[in-house]
Write a structure and sequence with these properties.
The chain is of the alpha+beta class and about 290 residues long. The protein folds into 2 domains: about 130 residues, Fervidobacterium nodosum Rt17-B1 like (Heat Shock Protein 90, 2-Layer Sandwich), CATH 3.30.565.40; about 90 residues, Actin, Chain A, domain 4. It is built from 6 helices and 8 strands, in the order H-E-E-H-H-E-E-E-H-H-E-E-E-H. The strands form 2 sheets. It has a 5-stranded mixed beta sheet with strand order 1-2-3-4-5. A hairpin with a 3-residue loop joins strand 3 and strand 4. The radius of gyration is 34 Å and the shape is flat. The chain starts with a helix and ends with a helix.
C-alpha cells in the first residue's frame, strides 16, 4: 500500500510540473509574440529600392587640324598669313551597370555629332577628316561640346553645342541640341513617353504664355493668341521644368538668336502621369 501511495504522489508531482512548464512556455510565447508585434508599425509597407543605373560619366577630347600657309589677301584671317582649319569634339562617355544601356547612350551621342551610324568609324577618324581639306576656301573651324544638363536616377539630359565658322564667312553658325536618355535602357525619351496622351494643345497654350513672358512679344514669326505658336522639338528635362530651345531662324530672325523658355512642372502637373519619370524632377523642384 505504501508503495502504491508513493507512486501516485510522484505522478501527481510530475503532472503538476508539466502543467506549470506548459503555462510558462505559453506565457513566454505570448510575450515574445506581443513584443514582435508591437515593434512593427501597423501601417508598414514593403519598401521597393529605387532604380540605380550605376551611371558614371567622363569626357574625351578629340582634335585635328589642317594648316594653310598662304592666306588670300582678301581675307587676311591671321596676322601671319597662315590659316588652320580645325575640328574639335568634347565627347561625353557613359558607363552603366547594364553594359547595353551605356553602349546605347554612347552610340546615339556619336550619331548626333557625326551624323553617322556608330561603328562606321571612330571619333578620332571623324575629326581627322578635316586633314583632307584640299582648298582653303573649303576650310572651317568646327567644335562640338557635350555637357550634362541635368539628371535623376532614370533620366540623363545631355546638351550638344556646335559652333562652326567657314573660312571667310561674315559670321558663324551655332546650334544647341538636347537629348534625354532613359537610364533603364539607353533609349531617347520623347514628350509622348512622359506626358499624358493628347498633351499637345494644352502644352502649346501654356508654352506660348511662358515664351512671351521670357522673351517678349516683338520680333517673332508667330502671332500671339492665333494658335500658331510652334513648340520647339528640342527640349531638356530638368529640375526647373522642361526647357525648350529654339535654333537660329527657327522662330525669328538671326538677330533674335536662339531663344529658350522653361515650363515648370507645376504648370503642367495635370499632363504628367503618376508613373512618369518626370515625377522625380517634380520632387526635386519642391
Amino acid at each position: 500500500m505504501n508503495k502504491l501511495f508513493t507512486i501516485l504522489a510522484a505522478g501527481a508531482i510530475l503532472c503538476s510540473c508539466s502543467e506549470q512548464a506548459k503555462e510558462n512556455q505559453e506565457t513566454v510565447s505570448q510575450n515574445t509574440e506581443k513584443v514582435l508585434t508591437d515593434s512593427i508599425p501597423s501601417d508598414t509597407v514593403a519598401v521597393i529600392p529605387e532604380f540605380d543605373s550605376g551611371l558614371e560619366t567622363s569626357f574625351s577630347n578629340f582634335k585635328a587640324e589642317k594648316c594653310f600657309t598662304e592666306d588670300p589677301e582678301e581675307f587676311q584671317m591671321t596676322e601671319t598669313g597662315e590659316y588652320c582649319a580645325e575640328r574639335k569634339v568634347k565627347l561625353l562617355v557613359a558607363k552603366t551597370t547594364d553594359i547595353k544601356t551605356g553602349e546605347a547612350i554612347n552610340k546615339e551621342l556619336y550619331r548626333l555629332i557625326t551624323d553617322q551610324k556608330a561603328g562606321s568609324s571612330g571619333m578620332q577618324a571623324f575629326v581627322n577628316k578635316i586633314k583632307s581639306t584640299a582648298d582653303i576656301y573649303e576650310a572651317s573651324l568646327e567644335e562640338w561640346v557635350c555637357s550634362i544638363i541635368d539628371q535623376t536616377n532614370k533620366i540623363l539630359s545631355i546638351g550638344i553645342r556646335y559652333d562652326g565658322m567657314a573660312y571667310g564667312a561674315a559670321h558663324g553658325i551655332s546650334t544647341y541640341q538636347c537629348v534625354n536618355f532613359n537610364l533603364e535602357n539607353g533609349k531617347v525619351f520623347k514628350l509622348a513617353d512622359v506626358l499624358n496622351p493628347g498633351y499637345e494643345k494644352e502644352l502649346k497654350k501654356i508654352g506660348e504664355k511662358r515664351f512671351l513672358i521670357e522673351n517678349g512679344k516683338e520680333g517673332w514669326e508667330f502671332k500671339p493668341g492665333k494658335e500658331n505658336f510652334p513648340l520647339a522639338e528640342n527640349y531638356a528635362f530638368t529640375k526647373k521644368g522642361i526647357v525648350f530651345s529654339y535654333g537660329a531662324f527657327e522662330i525669328g530672325s538671326y538677330a533674335m538668336a536662339m531663344p529658350q523658355m522653361t515650363i515648370s512642372y507645376d504648370l503642367i502637373s495635370q499632363l504628367i502621369p503618376e508613373n512618369s519619370p518626370l515625377r522625380a524632377f517634380m520632387i526635386a523642384e519642391k
